[in-house]
Amino acid sequence: MPKTRFLPFFVLALCASLALAQTGPKRTVLVRVDNIKPDALLKHQFLFFDEYDSRSIVSMVRDTAFILVTPAELALLRERGVDCQTVLEDSSELTLIRRAVYGPTLRLEKPYHSYADILREAESLQKTFPTLVQRFQIGTTSRKNQPIYAIKVSKDVKTHDARPSILFNGCHHSNEVLGAEICIAALHELAEHYGKDPDITRWVDKFQIYFVPVLNVDGHDIVTSGQDPRWRKNVRDTDSNGVANYPDGIDLNRNYDFNWAHGGSHDPASGRYRGEFPFSESEPRALADLARQKRFVLSITYHSQGEVIYYPWNWGGRKAPDDSLLTEIARGLAGSIPTMGGDSSYKAEYGAGLVGQSYPWLYGRIGTFDFVVETGKGESIFPPHEVEGIVQANLKGIHYILRRAEGPGLAVHVVDAKTNAPLEATVWFPAIETEDLDRRTTHPETGILYRLLRPRSYSLVVSKPGYATVAFKNISVDENGWTRLVVSLKKSSHQ
Ligand SMILES: [Zn+2]
Q: Which of 33, 34, 135, 325 places its Cα 20 to 30 Å from the Cα of 290?
């Protein structure tokens, strides 16, 4: 290309960037580009691809992109030989974005579920399998006071007992809708294949498996009803203008009280706005309360997108105290989920420790090994025909996690020496656990702590105020299953 033709392009690109920094250019054309890679698109310097604020590349799934451009930019793309089809011209940017993400009907079509659909399916499963499935409320949403539900799957589901608990949850970010779809598919699979598939039967017998398909119910309504596919945060009216308008809301996955101050943004307009104080929002409080009650051994928190697993943690260079086991499980989980291309699997990467997100909270505060699974590649909302493939791939990840919940590990059962009553006691592994973690305790109702460990010998200290502390050396963890250690604590003598 001759030099003289470069100059107008750069001048225009510069003007476009400057204009964007202030109010943004008026992008009135939605364009479809086929057979192109993101890198090739980003070479055109007025195009931006940001997970939290898609300003011009609205959707990029496989080799097809939907982009917003001005008529001048469209002319430039064509001049540079990019094969573009105009899909829609409209003065409303939101209309163009909705058309790009939702398709011609401007709403989420089947197989996607609205929250009402999800609740109906859970209800129907509960009716069909009353001893296996139970739906219950864990909290309410910040804006509309809507109930947030968990669904439990377990043999004798109404009995809350000492079996290990596992959690799968979706939609902290309401536009990352795949998490809900994976949870529903897994619910169906566990309930309907119980008694038929030996693995599933064993897991439902041995475990208490919990699903929270949608945490951000208010936001999920906005996305699934077709109002706004960009909606990520909850629906708190952060600009106090009396209406919920984009980008209102608080990033629920920056609102947890573990290293909250170091993560997210203090700017309410940011997609990562962490809120005024930790746990300001009722949605993460609901999930945290459930986690405190159930003491999950393992969990998956679904987000989109990237085909990557994030796990605890890289904390300013420090690794998690359980790093080698966490890394092994993260890699195993990643390797179990095929990518959309089918030629590879998800990848495992360290997540940040210094953020108010759910995975450092679950691991740091409760001891849950939590893995963020970023489902699919390209977008947070995928065209309907891509959904089934991503869901099926991720069911393999759920199977992997359930298999890992079978051990090896140590189940420490602490009781009062005299009454045999279960005790909530601190169980500390001095060779593993550092000050980065809260001390792990046994469950107050069962007296049990499940801790995944590699099969070898460990030292641990069991303590409770008012009781004599007990230290163990060389407790050996078996290669298979949960090794049980019963600890009887004696009341300390008072003067
Ligand atoms: Zn997310």
A: 325
